[in-house]
Amino acid sequence: MTNDPSPETYQAFTDEMNHRQKVDTFFQNVFPQHMEAVKNKTTPRPITDADFECYEQLIDAYNYHCGQASDYSFKYFGSFVAECSHLQFYPEMTETVSNKMRE
Q1: pLDDT for the residue numbered 4
Q2: Low-confidence ranges of the chain (pLDDT < 70)
Q3: DSSP helix/strand/coil, 43
Q4: Distance between CA atoms of 14 and 83, rounded to whole angstroms?
């Protein structure tokens, strides 16, 4: 970003801040149980093929329901990995997660 105080620069700044607030709110509302681990960078790493498949499905759902992932939203994708670790024990909840993302 430049130091140019033009209306275009101000609008770009405002748009970026609105986007970040929207992303923050989305992840806080959909995955509140994982936000502390995301903040502390302690989310688990995917270890099985099923974890990777689940992770890809959640990314696809995010891109479909929320728009293309941005550099800013990537910081929260650890919550997808954490969610997939839980879903391996409760696969019936996968649809519930998708519905929450859709809302």
Answers
A1: 64
A2: 1-4
A3: coil
A4: 31
